[in-house]
């Protein structure tokens, strides 16, 4: 049985047994928080437990490295939708130690793409069209600085209300310990003084 068939077989039983009932909640986050988190597999259950977040409490936006790389990209759009349409009153960016985006190098990723069948012609065409692979496929050197950068990009966004606190945390994927990089309440106070 392939992966998709296994998922669908499980889902059939899940629905028939009404296991979904214990997950029913509103589309509005109970804690009025949107979390931007890394897509790392170690955080799937650990991060919500470490943050005391239950089903229905927050909106979670997953992206490689918890990086908000473009002020008008899909991550920022999701944050704005969470704030304006779904009632989120705070934003929290959560990176993690031992992240795969740390020191990601474009040339290594491009080589892997070629090894998997992406043609040099396709890469050349995208490069000609203006795709800067060094920028597009760049990771970060320091997770703490990366989180701070994403927090600043969100906090200073022209479409985000000034009264929305934007926090920055880094989680240890081994212990679940959260380290504060930016306390959004303090940052909000210092920007109004």
From TrEMBL:
InterPro entries assigned: Carbonic_anhydrase, Carbonic_anhydrase_sf
One annotated GO molecular function: carbonate dehydratase activity
Top EC class for this record: lyase
SUPFAM superfamilies: beta-carbonic anhydrase, cab
Entry EC number(s): 4.2.1.1
Necessary cofactors: Zn(2+)
Binding site for Zn(2+): 38, 40, 96, 99
Reaction it catalyzes: hydrogencarbonate + H(+) = CO2 + H2O
Record key words, sorted: Metal-binding, Zinc
Gene3D superfamilies in UniProt: Carbonic anhydrase (3.40.1050.10)
Cofactor note: Binds 1 zinc ion per subunit.
Keyword Amino-acid biosynthesis: no
Family: Belongs to the beta-class carbonic anhydrase family.
UniProt-recorded name of the protein: carbonic anhydrase
